[in-house]
Design goal:
It is built from eight helices and five strands, in the order αβββββααααααα. By secondary structure, the chain is mostly helical. Strands 1-2-5 form a three-stranded antiparallel β-sheet. It has a two-stranded antiparallel sheet with strand order 3-4. The chain has helices at residues 3-8, 70-83, 102-116, 119-123, 131-143, 148-155, 159-170, 174-189, and strands at 14-15, 28-32, 35-38, 50-53, 64-68. It folds into two domains: 1-98, no CATH class; 130-191. The protein is globular. Helix content is 47%, strand content 10%.
């Protein structure tokens, strides 16, 4: 998710499997349809530091679904149980209930990096900003072999953008690709 999509996420946008032992490995789904993009109060009509918009490069009212793995289903459940939601149903809010500003989550991110990374890693560009998580997630999907069209849809990209920014991740997979093609050819030749 993009930062603006995260801060706009409401509990009603989350479809989570039943909270029972039988469903602990089930995936959930997020329905994204709004972004609260940080722009600065000088650029909005009402002086707010953000604008409520539709999804990036989509028609107003368009939505995008993003399946979420069981580990994220569990984290969302814990977050909701511990913090509840804002009056308008948003899952993530600032201490006073408003939109979480980037300065707030960037400060927390920097403290978290220093707590878990070695001093050398913390001085590097490794996960330098929270947006790095989005890039890492998309990269993981690609390296895991998820169909590029599905990766693009989940990330809210076009396939052209996906290939432009993530082409370097796709390199070096020639042997894996050869194996996939050989397997398909072998299956086609089987009686």
């Amino acid at each position: 998710m993009r930062p603006g999509e995260i801060v706009a996420l409401r509990a009603t946008d989350c479809t989570l499997p039943p909270n029972s032992p039988d469903h602990v490995q089930d995936w959930g789904e997020l329905l994204l349809g709004e972004s609260r993009t940080e722009v600065g109060g000088g650029w909005t009509d009402d002086g707010a530091s953000y604008e409520t918009r539709g999804l990036k490069r989509r028609k107003l009212g368009a939505t995008r679904t993003v399946p979420i793995p069981p580990v994220l289903v569990h984290l969302l459940r814990e977050h909701i149980a511990r913090y509840g939601t804002a009056d308008d149903g948003r899952l993530f809010r600032a201490a006073r209930g408003g939109r979480v500003p980037s300065t707030e989550y960037c400060d927390i991110w920097e403290r978290a990096r220093k707590a878990v990374l070695s001093p050398r890693e913390a001085e590097s560009d490794l996960a330098a900003v929270p947006y790095s998580l989005r890039h890492a997630g998309v990269s993981l999907w690609i390296k895991s072999g998820v169909d590029p069209a599905e990766v693009a849809a989940r990330a809210g990209h076009s396939i052209a953008v996906l290939y432009r920014f993530y082409a370097k991740i796709l390199k070096g997979g020639q042997q894996h690709s050869n194996d996939l093609i050989a397997r398909a050819l072998d299956e086609g030749a089987a009686p």
